[in-house]
Amino acid sequence: xxxxGNLISQNLNMGILGLAIVIIKKLLQGLKSKxxxxx
Length: 39
Hints:
By secondary structure, the protein is mainly alpha-helical. It has one helix at 4-38. It has one domain (1-39).
């Protein structure tokens, strides 16, 4: 069985990863729109 600390740290890591993915996706979308306006 996992300890509460392990579960909490796993949830935090997943949350941080999720946030990073969302931010990266938004940045990529912004870059794509900038490229489209330039073309």
